[in-house]
Amino acid sequence: MAFDHHKYVPFQPLRKTDRRWPDRVIETAPQWCAVDLRDGNQALVKPMSVAQKQRLFELLVKVGFKEIEIGFPAASQPDFDFCRKLIEEDRIPDDVHIQVLTQARPELIARTYEALAGAKRAIVHVYNSTSKVQREQVFGLDREGIKAIAVKGAEVVKAHAAEHPETEWTFQYSPESFTGTELDFAADVIDAVNDVWRPDQGQPVVINLPATVEMATPNVFADQIEWICDRVKYREHISISVHTHNDRGCAVAAAELAVMAGADRVEGTLMGNGERTGNMDLVTAAMNLYSQGVDPKVDFSSMAEITDVVEACTEIPTHPRHPYAGELVFTAFSGSHQDAIRKCLARRAEDDPWEVAYLPIDPRDLGRRYEEVVRINSQSGKGGVAYILERDYNINLPRWLQIEFSKVVQREAESGGGEIDSDTIHRLFEKRYLAVNPDWELKSYDLHRDEEGVYARVSFGVDINLTTLEGRGLGAVEALVAALEKNHEVHIAVEAYDEFALGEGTDANAMACIRLQVDGQPCSAAALAEDTTSATLQALLSALSQKILSPGAQRIADEIAVSLDA
Ligand code: KIV
Ligand code: ZN
After folding, report:
1. What is the band of 336 on the pLDDT scale with cuts at 50, 70, 90?
2. Total structural domains in the chain?
3. Same-domain check for residues 109 and 85
4. Residues 34-62, buried b or exposed e (16+ Cβ, 10 A)?
5. Quick check: CB of 256 below 6 Å from ligand 1?
6. Which of 254-268, 373-387, 487-501: highest mean pLDDT?
7. What's the pTM?
8. C-beta of 412 in contact with ligand 1 (< 6 A)
């Protein structure tokens, strides 16, 4: 009974017929304003210390934000102290505007200007709530009463600024809870504030439209923004800003659609920290633009440093699936995804436009490595396993062996229940395919070709018990097969055989892989050696050794499921 949707009233969207924003494309980045140090900070379990704020401020400057809301100095002593510190210690670069928030109350505005004394430039951000629910249930005021608060605030802001002409002032007004405010009333209040500030006479003004609570789908917000942009006075003289929250999980989408609808400026926080479900995430919004070939005007190429600082300052960990920033967002575990990524990366030339399946952007742009892209667990297929062996060990498995070995890895992953790292994959490969039983270790060979084909004389085993066999065939493999068949009274068919030279960085020069049917039963092995003939003969001996009982022989094939604890 508690779960009853009838309790909720659907949001009544604007009936808009002159909608233009759906056809727009964002081609330039909006003016960003980072509000981590105010809205973000106000939402923390443990608000930031002055030292933490300074660290985050420096990061925001480094990333390239030119407008940074640094606090609510009239409401918080640490925010006041931080503001003073930045100004007195001359820590604000000349191309950065600090912004401070205040309610539209004369005494708070006065205190705000105290905090800003001596600033070269600053944005004074004044707000009051305008929504129906706040008017009726929180303030008990009608529309005129609420508008009077805004106008009074605007007047006081202007008067204080006039006393400090040495500072370059920008005024910002937010009709707080804008999304719950009737649009005609929001426009009326905005116009009244601007009639005081007169942006048409040169006063820089930002009108910030907050989705204080996200109440509807992003298209509804975009309609609201387009409506306001079309209706407010002084439009060409003011900057329209949006400040979205994430209650419905669409803060970034709402801000993007709002920019399409005419917004010039977007407020948000790194990683979307903020009240309740958070503010609009600046990382996602800016990187979304970047992925479309638009200069985001901020630089997130050191993403690890950014997440480190944000985590240290907010004490909130970054979700591993956080867009662009999370640990797992460029990782493919699924076999088909790994295969597709591997193929696209292999075909791609350095200067080609980015077009790689499953990777919306190049992870390297954010300081990530391709090594992180393919990670192996029980869901991974042959492609990923082969990719790791090739990338990290120069081992190029033939397709038949990729299929076989991926099953070995999968069984290991299933028994361990988690991820398998590159080192473990390599050790599994060594143990399953490369391990040589001492009784079957190639010691020497003599090959020569005459009119009847190839004659092979091969010695293997431990020195005191060396086995030497002779045989003939069309090639070295056939000759040794003939010798082994005769000696062990078995029938051997070579099902698959591949050899290849190894790249630089390995001791061995060649690798051979072989799959046999011995009396109708499969067995396979690989071998590394200095030359391809040695590798081939050893692979053949190792494969057969799995099927032949001889002193000390191990049935390595049966060990697939044995864990690598040792
Ligand atoms: O979410 C909000 O409405 C705010 C305002 C103060 C802009 O943070
Ligand atoms: Zn907010």
Report:
1. confident
2. 3
3. yes
4. bbbbbbbbbbeeebbeeebbbbbbebbbe
5. no
6. 254-268
7. 0.85
8. no
